[in-house]
Amino acid sequence: MTANNSLHPASLQEYLWTRELSERKKSLRLPPPETILRYGAFVGSAIQCHSSLERTMEHARRHITDAESQGTSVISGTVILADTLIHSKGRFARSWHAPPGGLWGSMILADTFLTRARTLLPLALGIACCEAVRGLGVHEAHVRWVNDVLVRGQKLAGFLVESFRGPRYGEAFHLLGFGINVNNNSFPAELTDNAISLSRILDGPVSLPDFTLSFLAKLAWNIGLLCHEEERELHRWEGAEDQENQTAHLLLDQWKKLSDTIGKKVLYGYDIQQKPLYEAVVTGINSDGAIVMRLNDGTEIIEHSGELQYLKA
Amino acid sequence: MAEEIDFDAILSKYRADPFDYAEIYAAHTGVVTFKVEEGSSVNCTSGEWQHIPGSPLFEITRERNTKLITAKTNGTISSIRTELEGQFVEAGEKLLTIRHPLKKKEVIENILKEVLYLFPAPERAKYFFSLDIQSRIEKRGSKALTIQPGDEIIIMSLMKRDTPIYYTGEAGVIHSVYFTPGVSMDQGQALIGICASEKLPLIQKVITRVKADWDKLIDPVHAEE
């Protein structure tokens, strides 16, 4: 059965080096946008399009395992798309509703990152999605730490990153899972108040292949930023870049521009649905992506992992 | 894992010196300014969420960036390198030692750590048992659960990136769990302590013996639970 959301790597490359590049040139002169795109251009080097899968993350693991058993390597940047998922799940085995109309998929990324870039990798997904959504005119889209994308307080997209080690050669990969409500308008009863789709926001359907192109191009850009910042960090270690020339981290800067988390009163929990822990006010984000919060007694707390829920101020 | 334990030797060691000694090193290069002196009492991190920093120990300044280092363990400063005050130090330079009075539970844990296989945290992150292991623990308890090398036992979570951790030690039961879900663990800290199921009686003997000898072991000043 042919997939409806069908995409070819060549289309993505063309989009990347024309539309995405010209958009980025409007807002960034240095470093040259071409440099950033070259770093991220491996995203979507191979694209699999399926009409239906059980879970794309599971499919990605199987793809790596199969490739290793045949003595071949997996192409880093391989994207796996499915029109619908039968047994999709989010973190902590939460159910994830993935009917036709949404953008459901995973990307396989070989783990070539240094520690800091690896830690910041999940931010790239939320940023890319938020940029793609704003590109459709939905300017009220924001990122909630770590990488949820919300519009009008309702969840438009969720992401998960899982690591996986190939069973034969032991090569480490990151599996980047994405679920974006594009044209799917019906949600299970328990999600109705908290979930929203792009077509509902825009009051009409969105071209899923076009949105997919835009999201993947922005993901390529943001992963490119991460790689570029990693190179700068290596230069700093080698003393090639003096302290005066240091600027803020470009990916973190972009996260700050797109997020509305800082300043919000929040409920924090490691698994917020099962075990919310405490209320606090978010005061910032650290250079390693950790969230900085102030508790009611005035003390500061820094969390590197967990989830937030916004509370009314 | 040790086959036999010389209880008398271990207990007399703790009887003679019922303290742990936490040596504090410079994490990176910089100029050091001490905030304590020899004999100062220091408190460890506290608060419901472990969010209240411990007592200030020293500041270290590198390239105009000053970092305050606080105590992670309570006790008294038993030695301090005062000659390094205001001096530039290299990463890894020993700066001071905190003498920490041991409680009964800590003595038991210390002895057990000598006989258990300790599985360390690969990165500073939060950890939780994998869903399968968690449900088996809930049903039967961790001591009824045997794990094998290669089993996916723990999920490491950092910035919403979840990494399955596969067990690499000897097969055995999970005797001790040193992490709490939702609380960060430093790289290298023990996450779980494993022992072969046939060694469980030996472990129980350690616990019983320390409990029985506790009053004789520790002077009344330190005889807290």
CATH architecture of the largest domain in chain B: Beta Barrel
Number of strands of chain A: 12
Summarize the main sheet of chain B: 4 strands, antiparallel
Indicate the structural class of chain A: alpha+beta
* Integer tally of domains of chain A: 2
**Record field, number of beta strands of chain B:** 15
Q: Could you characterize what this model shows?
A:
The complex is a heterodimer of chains A (313) and B (225). With 313 residues, chain A is α+β, with helices and mostly antiparallel strands. Chain A has helices at residues 9-27, 33-40, 56-69, 115-134, 198-202, 208-237, 250-258, and strands at residues 47-53, 78-85, 103-110, 141-144, 148-151, 154-165, 172-180, 265-271, 275-285, 291-295, 300-303, 307-310. Chain A folds into two domains: 9-235, Bira Bifunctional Protein, Domain 2 (BirA Bifunctional Protein, domain 2, 2-Layer Sandwich); 261-313, SH3 type barrels (Roll). Chain A is built from seven helices and twelve strands. In chain A, helix 1 crosses helix 6 (208-237). The longest helix of chain A has 30 residues, at 208-237. In chain B, the strands form four sheets. Chain B has a four-stranded antiparallel sheet with strand order 1-8-6-3, with no helix packed on it. In chain B, strand 12 and strand 13 form a beta hairpin. In chain B, helix 1 runs parallel beside helix 4 (200-217) and helix 2 (104-115) runs antiparallel to helix 4 (200-217). The interface between A and B is medium-sized, with 36 and 24 residues. Strand 6 (154-165) of chain A pairs parallel with strand 13 (161-166) of chain B, so a sheet runs across the interface.
